[in-house]
Each structure stands twice: as structure tokens, then as C-alpha cells.
TrEMBL record, chain A:
Gene Ontology CC: plasma membrane
InterPro entries named in the record: ABC_transporter_permease (IPR051393), MetI-like (IPR000515), MetI-like_sf (IPR035906)
Superkingdom of origin organism: Bacteria
Membrane topology: Multi-pass membrane protein
Pfam family, any one: BPD_transp_1
GO biological processes: transmembrane transport
Gene3D superfamilies: MetI-like (1.10.3720.10)
Organism listed in the record: Caldilineaceae bacterium SB0664_bin_27
Name of the featured protein: Sugar ABC transporter permease
Primary location group: membrane
Automatic annotation (TrEMBL), chain B:
Protein's UniProt name: Carbohydrate ABC transporter permease
Organism: Caldilineaceae bacterium SB0664_bin_27
PANTHER family: ABC TRANSPORTER PERMEASE PROTEIN MG189-RELATED-RELATED (PTHR43744), SN-GLYCEROL-3-PHOSPHATE TRANSPORT SYSTEM PERMEASE PROTEIN UGPE (PTHR43744:SF8)
Pfam families found in the cross-reference section: BPD_transp_1
UniProt xrefs under InterPro entries: MetI-like, MetI-like_sf
Record bears the keyword Translocase: no
Family label: Belongs to the binding-protein-dependent transport system permease family.
Limits of the ABC transmembrane type-1 domain: 86-277
Amino acid sequence: MSVQTADAGLDSKLWSGRRRALRRNLTAFLFLLPTFLFLAIFMYQPTVNVIYHTLFRWDGFTVERYVGFKNFITMVNDPNMHIASRNLGWFFLGWMLQRISPFLVAELVFNLKRERSKYWYRTLFVLPMVVPFLVTIMIWKFIYNPLPTTGVLNRMLGSFGLEQWQTAWLSEPSLVILALLFVSFPWISGWPFMIFYAGLQQIPSEVLDASVMDGCNVWQRMVRIDIPLVVTSIQLVAIQTMIGIIQEFAFVLIMTAGGPAKASLVPGLLLFMAAFRGDQMGYGATIGVTMFIAIFILTLLSFRYTTSPFARTRRTRET
Amino acid sequence: MTGQTVDRPFTSSPDAAPVELGARFKSALHHALLLFLLLLTFFPFFIAILTSLKSFQQLLSNFWLPAFPLQLHNYVMAWNEIYRSIINSSLVSLGAVAGVLLCASLASYAFARIDFAWRDGAYYLVLSLLMIPGVLTLIGRYLLIVQFGLMNSLWGLILPYIAGGLAFAVFLLTGFFSDLPEELFEAARMDGGTELQMYRLIALPLSRPIMAIVGLLTFLSTWGDYVWPLLVLRSPEKFTLMLGLAKFTGNSQVMFGPLMAGYVIASVPTAIIIILMMRTFAGAALVGAFK
């Protein structure tokens, strides 16, 4: 008799426990519903759709014909793709150096003696970030203006008596990539500078004090202490930059639209042109997926070598 | 700024004076280099502001220095040209911010504080989107907007922007919500509080700074976008600020004054947003989020 009641008690506890779990699941479901609705419609569906359609000749609407891997073969043999990849190689090198070079400036500021001057240089170097990137680009278009009277750079050369160097900077096939790489020179203002500086600030002061005691000069300290200790920040910036560069095309679109005569064409722009100016959605999708694969590999590398967001999740789960 | 005294306890040897002089020279060089770099950094923006106050004649005759009288009506012209696109951009960005904050905070609350089935799986499903480059989904999103009949509509910007901002927002907010002390929620649960009440009365009020950061980041990324509005919007009265500026640039071949004035005006909202961001001590937290 008494055993039975105990059993029933256990049973009802189990049931109420299950009911509570069910209720929790339902609550969580309702909390998650809006997010997953948005993600399903605007993120998961387009991704799957695009990957699927790499196998089709497709204009997005009426024409849809299965062609297997023909798009990939076309891409590999596309002379435009060859030009775009070669250009991307140059942009890659240049932009990479640009994004890493603020580390030296961060060191310069960090090595100042007075806190107040550090604060002011830091603030001032970051200040131009308030200007939207697109506006910065357009100001640089004004700097590269081809006319000798209104182009800032040409005017500057003129006032130094170097008229023979004046040129249409963005219309010269041999100069255009160099000119584009020089945009926003000296490339300090931006989040890499902030990340590097924050990294330097996190070096324990005992370590720095010890290096002074041991008679370390600034150069030795930078190479032996600072760089090894902020190497994760440097890697982070490098990998984020790689991911950004591979898909970048808005910048080129605004400055030169890939010109003159494809001299500044990049794969992202080729995708844009194929998909939205040429009705070759399937081919555009193929370029997109190829870029995604490249980015995916780089992202995996970034998780390998830096603290990943998944590490954070794991910590979250424990609590 | 070179006149600072350098306190060096380990150089108080007899030859302290020359060392001091050398240190001062080095310090002057140090500052000179930094100032030169600052000058280069600001040069384009100085030129833009200077030019925004000149007529075309003044620009030709006096390129490098301020010219008087200042042409303040350049700003009036620029404003008339782009005020409409500023309103459109504000609507789009504020809509996206509201949507991201509402959806992401609800989802993050569930991930951080409710123990439900397949929680890890669902969370990874959201986080995996951080690896999907925008350029991959561009074509698919465009076709959706066409199918939904949202072409040339601001909703065609707002809805994909919300979706695009969610993954990173959920990542930041989940981290923050799960760091809140459990005792607060325990006490509320004792008093019979529902999850929705705990979300609204405990989690939200305590997470204002991180919500501000997420909101400001969303605002900045949507405000500065160029490619997506270029695809979705057709008629000039719907243009966002970046499209409006591009159109203005195309139209005003030699009107550099009004054009630069337009650039200056376009930088004011982002300047306000970024200053707010710095004020909400976001700088440090922001960097922390990337590491």
C-alpha cells in the first residue's frame, strides 16, 4: 500500500517534471521564433538556393537548365577571372600590409611617456573613423581627379614644378592598382589600430618593467615581448582582412568600376557584373561559392589560431 | 610638448646630463613623427572641409588655403540635394536596429537562461552564419526581394539587414546574458515570475550598455552600405544616403564646393553615433568582443 503511494508520488513528480520541461521548450521556442524566422528566410534559404544553382544555367527567373559542373569549368577558363584573380593578388598583398602596418604606429603611441599624450594621439588617430568609408573613398576620388587644376594630387605636383608627372591616376592601367592601394594613406585610422593598441595595453606592466630593468631597448622589446604577446591580435586582424579582401568589390565599383579595361577588376566585381548586369545568376553563384570555400578555409584557420567564438560558447554552457 | 622631464631612476650616473639631452632629442623626434602621421591622416579631410566652403572660382585661384567670403550656401545646396536620402537612411537604419535588438535579445535570453532541448545545436546553427560571407547570399537575397515584391521599397532593405545583423548580435548578447548572476533569476522564479517577465524586468534593464553597442554597430553597418541599396532601390526619392551621395557625385562634375559640403553633412550622423559609442565605454568592450 505504502509502496504504491510512493510509486504514484514518484510518477506524478516525473510527469510534472516532464510537463515543466515541455513548457520550457515551448517558451524557448517562442523566444527563438522571430530570430529563426528571419534567418530561415533571408540567410539559410538564399545560401542553399545559391549553392544548389551553381549546377545550373540560370538567369534567376525563367531560364533554369541543369549543366553539372560546367559553371566551374567556365570559371576556371574565364580570361576575366584570370585577370581578376591576378589583380586580387596585388590587392591582397597591399591591403594586408596596410592593415598590419598600424601595429608600428600603435607601438609609437604606446611608447610615449605621458598618459595624456598617449590619450590624445590615440583619439586623434581613430577620429577619422567617424567619416563613413564611402565618403572617404569619394574624397580620394577628388584627390585623384584627372584635371591639373582641380585634382588635389595633380595640383600638388604642379605647385612643386612636377607638371610632367601629372596624370589621370585612375585611368592609367599601369597605375590604377597602385593608386587604389594608396587610398586612405597612411592607413592608420581604423579598427586594426584599436585592436593592436588594446593588445599592447593588455601586456602586464610587470613584464614591461622587467624588460626595462634588464636593459632592453625599445626595438628588442617590440620584437621579443610585444609581438609574441599580441600575436593573436595580429592574426585576428590578418584573417579578418583576408576574409574582407576576398569578397571586396564595392570600393572598386565606386572608384573605377574595374577599369580602365579590366585593369582593376576583382572576382567580387565579376560576380556582381555576371549576376546583376549580365543575367548569369548561375555563374555568379559559382564565383560566390568559390569565394565562400576560400573564406571558409581561412575562417577555419582563424579558429585554429585564435580564440574562437565557440570557445566562448563552451564557457557559456558551463554556467 | 618636448619639454617633459623624463624620470629615469637607472640613469642617475655622472653622465646623466647628456643622456637627458639625448632622451629629449629622441622624444622630440618621436612626437615629430607622430604629428607628421597625424597630418597625413587628416590631410584629405582638411582639404574636403576647405573645399566645401569655396566656390569653383575660389577653388581655382586659391586651392590650399581658406578663401573668403566663405560659401555657406554650398551647405544649403548640398542639404537640399541629400536631405531626403538622409531621412530614408535614418528610417532604414533605425528599423534595422529595432528589429535586431528585439529579435536578438529574445533569442539570446533563451540561449543563455532557458534550458531547452537542442539548445547547443540551435546556437551553433545561428553562429555558423558568421562564416557565411555576404557576397554568397547576395544573389539569393536579391531574388527573394523580387519575389516578395519588395523591390524599390525600404522594407527590402530593413528586413534583410535585420537578418544579416542577428548572428553577431546573438553572439554578443548571449555571452552577456549568461554572465548575469543566477541569483537574480532564482529570486524572480521563486516569486512565480514568467520567463517573459524576467527577460523584460531583469535581463533587459541590466544589459543597456551591450544593447547600445549592438544597436550602434548595426546602425553604422547599415548606414554605410552601398551595394544592397544599389540593387534594391530604383527611384531617386527612395535612395539611401550613400546612393544619394553617389548620384550627387555623378551629377556635379565641377561643383566641388556643394559636393564636399554634402560629404561633410553625411559624416555628421556617424560622428554622433561613434561619439555615443565611445561614451558608452564601448571601445574596450567592443575590442573585447573581437578577441
